[in-house]
Design brief:
- The protein folds into 3 domains: 23-89, Phosphorylase Kinase, domain 1; 93-266, Transferase(Phosphotransferase) domain 1 (Transferase(Phosphotransferase), domain 1, Orthogonal Bundle), CATH 1.10.510.10; 270-357, no CATH class.
- The radius of gyration is 25 Å and the shape is globular.
- The chain is 40% helix and 11% strand.
- The N and C termini lie far apart (74 Å).
- A 5-stranded antiparallel sheet has the order 1-2-3-5-4, covered by helices on one side.
- By secondary structure, the chain is α+β, with helices and mostly antiparallel strands.
- The chain has 12 helices and 10 strands.
- The chain binds adenosine-5'-diphosphate and magnesium ion.
- The site of magnesium ion (MG) has 4 residues, from loops.
């Protein structure tokens, strides 16, 4: 048996090599890696900002309690080696990679516009401004659902604003050098983002812009917006959508709620609801009779979805289901029966049955 003295007198250097998890993405602030210990989890590591540590905590504080189907869900927040680690649900890729590598079409575009509006509406209702809307911050899930991520530049409506929020190419005119802008800056960045989804290029091209003349050059390029948008090969209502979002005056830009209600991204999108153009037009015309402008888009969406579910669940003439679907949609969105439309007792009875079912297994 060897005694301690018999040990050879050599020292073996021991380096503990930290396990490097596979890199998923890297932005201006954090590094996102695949969590190999748990499936379907991405870990975003944010280094503590040495000059202003408070800034590091904004993203975890704002995003932690958000709960919306089109916003990346944060599962856990840890502190590790002086950095913050945010464990979040894992997506397939960002929208920039998706449009360059996968089959992308107008139906997906309309769906994404709607989902992004829905996420921003949720935030604005809670007085949260995202502050960095762009295609790299849109995560696409395996089923092509879009989820907004990256709250590193977010703020509350009542806070003093950061004049350097947003990527410079997506920064609204009123944000440059100002601490008093509002959620309409998200609407501007949304317009730039939708343009990029349509064309694969940036509305305000960063090419040739020197850091010291960023503001001047971007302002020069605002003059090109109209021509660039008109040259897009997309339906007119999408061009109008982008142009309304990129109005130079924030007060002339629509709010996210107005954009949702004007139906622009949903117009003619009957194919995604698995119905004919005639069926969709019929539902849309009935919806327009309900004089609740702000909610028409949402009533139409739920009514169309409910109608296609009802038609699939039942045999026979589907026409009566249009009224049932409208009744269902308006009771969900308006929390009342739409008094502008007359429904008979059979419609109400069927709607009640359907409403009790959707709590269980029908996704609307
Ligand atoms: N949950 C996620 N699932 C998949 N990829 C992600 C996820 N979160 C971020 N990414 C990828 O990592 C990139 C950087 O993440 P992001 O949160 O935007 O960090 P930063 O604040 O540094 O910009 C994104 O553009 C995206 O490609
Ligand atoms: Mg980012």
């Amino acid at each position: 048996m060897n005694s301690a003295n018999d040990k050879p007198n050599i020292s073996i250097p021991v380096h503990i090599i930290p396990e490097q998890k596979p890199l998923i993405g890297k932005g201006g602030f954090g590094t996102v890696r695949l969590d190999t210990n748990i499936t379907d989890v991405a870990t975003k590591e944010i280094p503590i900002n040495a000059s202003n540590p408070m800034l590091t905590y904004i993203e975890p504080c704002i995003s932690r309690y958000l709960n919306h189907p089109n916003i990346i869900k944060i599962n856990d927040i840890l502190s590790c080696n002086g950095n913050i680690q945010m464990k979040q649900e894992l997506g397939s890729m960002n929208a920039d990679t998706y449009i360059r590598t996968k089959e992308f079409n107008i139906t997906i575009l309309r769906k994404w516009i709607y989902q992004l509006l829905s996420a921003l509406d949720y935030l604005h209702d809670r007085c949260i401004i995202h502050g960095d809307v762009k295609i790299e911050n849109l995560i696409i899930m395996p089923n092509t659902t879009l989820k907004l991520c990256d709250f590193g530049l977010s703020c509350k409506k009542q806070w003093k604003k950061n004049p350097k929020a947003y990527t410079s190419t997506h920064r609204a005119p009123e944000v440059w050098n100002s601490t008093v802008w509002d959620e309409k800056a998200d609407v501007w960045a949304l317009g730039c983002t939708v343009y990029e989804l349509c064309s694969g290029t940036q509305l305000i091209s960063p090419v040739g812009i020197q850091p010291n003349q960023q503001e001047k050059m971007c302002r020069e390029r605002y003059k090109l917006i109209k021509d660039r948008v008109q040259a897009l090969q997309v339906p007119d209502e999408i061009k109008q959508f982008i142009l309304s979002c990129t109005d130079i005056l924030p007060s002339y830009r629509p709010s996210i709620k107005q954009l949702l209600s004007t139906n622009v991204p949903l117009k003619d999108d009957y194919s995604s609801f698995n119905m004919t153009q005639d069926e969709y037009n019929h539902i849309q015309n009935r919806c327009l009779l309900i004089k609740e402008g702000n909610y028409t888009g949402e009533i139409l969406r739920i009514a169309a979805k409910s109608y296609s579910n009802l038609r699939d669940l039942n045999k026979g003439d589907p026409t009566p289901f249009i009224d049932v679907a409208l009744y269902v949609a308006s009771s969900i969105v308006l929390r009342r029966e739409p008094t502008e439309l007359l429904f008979n007792s059979s419609v109400k009875a069927q709607a009640d049955i359907f409403l009790s079912l959707i709590n269980y297994d029908i996704d609307i």
